[in-house]
Design brief:
InterPro entries: Rossmann-like_a/b/a_fold, Universal_stress_UspA, UspA. This is UspA domain protein. The protein is an alpha/beta fold and 139 residues long. The protein is 47% helix and 20% strand. Helix 4 runs parallel beside helix 5. It is globular and about 40 Å long.
C-alpha cells in the first residue's frame, strides 16, 4: 500500500497534472509537494535572490509560496490536504535524494517551451533513473 507520495512541482501545467494524478491515484496517501529552488548564484535567474538573502531557506520558501498556494488549491478541489516542502539545490539530485523517504514519486513529463521540455525532460529522466522509489511520469 502506498502511504507517502512525493510530487515535485515547478510552475508548469505538467506539474499540476502530476499533482492531480497523485491525488486521484492515491487518495488515502500523504502527499508532499516539493519545490526545488536552484543553487544560489548571482548568475542564475530566480536563484539570484537566494545568493543575496541572509536566510536562504526562508528566501526559497518565499519564492515557492505562489506555487504552494496553487498546489493547495488543486488539492482542495479533491477535498484533500497536502504538505509542502522546499529545497535548495539541483532539482533532479534533490528529488532523487528525497525519494528514499517515499513509497512513490509522481512527476510531470516536461514543461511548456521547447527549452523547458529539454531541461525538465532531462530532469524527469534523471529522477526515473536514480529514484529509490518507483516513479510515475504523467503526461
Amino acid at each position: 500500500m502506498i502511504s507517502r507520495v512525493l510530487v515535485p512541482m515547478d510552475e508548469s501545467e505538467m506539474a499540476e497534472r502530476a499533482l492531480r494524478f497523485a491525488l486521484e491515484a492515491h487518495p488515502d496517501a500523504e502527499i508532499i509537494v516539493l519545490h526545488v529552488v536552484g543553487q544560489p548564484s548571482s548568475m542564475m535567474g530566480g536563484a539570484a535572490g537566494l545568493a543575496l538573502a541572509d536566510d536562504t531557506e526562508e528566501a526559497a520558501r518565499e519564492q515557492a509560496s505562489d506555487l504552494f498556494e496553487r498546489a493547495h488549491e488543486i488539492a482542495a478541489e479533491s477535498g484533500t490536504e497536502i504538505k509542502t516542502d522546499v529545497m535548495v539545490g539541483h532539482p533532479a539530485r534533490a528529488v532523487v535524494n528525497a525519494s528514499g523517504e517515499f513509497d512513490t514519486v509522481v512527476i510531470g513529463s516536461h514543461s511548456g517551451s521547447l527549452a523547458d521540455r529539454l531541461l525538465v525532460g532531462n530532469i524527469a529522466e534523471k529522477i526515473v533513473r536514480g529514484s529509490a522509489a518507483p516513479v510515475t511520469v504523467v503526461r
